[in-house]
Q: What sequence folds into this?
């Protein structure tokens, strides 16, 4: 009932399309787990197949992004700031782009990670996926926030979700430091170019979590207004 009132006053809400876009983004990012499993097993045929899935999902997310941008009204009031929505949408899009870019880099070079790094990589990738998934959880609450007028217990719930997102991102930072330390200890045993690109991949995987945290930070700013 409250949602209908908001629709009547402000017009069609863009929140649901934003949530649909984030669902496609997390579907894309989640493919990094089987992708890196294939990479670590040196199953390049499966890795390429999974990369194609990532690429397809990223393209689907891109289509949703463009549709939302084109359909977002300019001349009427919205339940959420148009600028805030577009910034959240851009960040969500960057998550999918980052997943595709890092998978493409690894596949293009058919990178083989030293055992010491490989042993930690799977957990690292999964924790970064967890960050994106938690970002989706916060975005899924946005319609409830709109319905309550950004007041009451719903704000406390979302702030708790954002704190959890921050905690997950902090975990990924710690794991990244551990992996970089392991790589530093053995980098002289590797071809210099390979070592450089491994550092790049490790940082790139972490960016998935970093951008996911920015989605939560943007939502937190929306709550503060």
A:
């Amino acid at each position: 009932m409250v949602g209908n009132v908001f629709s009547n006053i402000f017009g069609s809400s863009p929140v649901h399309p934003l949530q649909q876009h984030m669902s496609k983004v997390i579907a894309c990012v989640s493919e990094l787990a089987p992708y890196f499993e294939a990479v670590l097993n040196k199953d390049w045929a499966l890795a390429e197949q999974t990369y194609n899935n990532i690429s397809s999902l990223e393209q689907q997310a891109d289509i949703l992004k463009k549709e939302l941008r084109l359909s977002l009204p300019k001349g009427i009031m919205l339940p959420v700031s148009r600028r805030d929505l577009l910034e959240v949408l851009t960040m969500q899009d960057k998550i999918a782009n980052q997943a595709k870019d890092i998978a493409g880099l690894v596949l293009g070079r058919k990178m083989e990670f030293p055992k010491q790094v490989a042993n930690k990589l799977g957990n690292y990738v999964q924790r970064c996926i967890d960050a994106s998934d938690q970002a989706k959880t916060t975005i899924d609450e946005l319609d409830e926030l709109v319905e309550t007028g950004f007041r009451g217990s719903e704000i406390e719930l979302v702030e708790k979700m954002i704190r959890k997102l921050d905690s997950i991102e902090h975990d990924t930072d710690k794991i990244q430091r551990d992996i970089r330390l392991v790589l530093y200890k053995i980098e002289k045993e590797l071809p210099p170019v390979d070592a450089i690109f491994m550092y790049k991949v490790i940082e790139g995987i972490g960016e998935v979590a970093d951008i996911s945290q920015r989605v939560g930070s943007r939502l937190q700013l929306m709550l503060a207004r």
Observations:
- The CA atoms of residues 7 and 13 lie 6 Å apart.
- Residues 1-11 have pLDDT under 50 and may be disordered.
- The first helix runs from residue 2 to 10.
- The chain is about 85% helix and 0% strand.
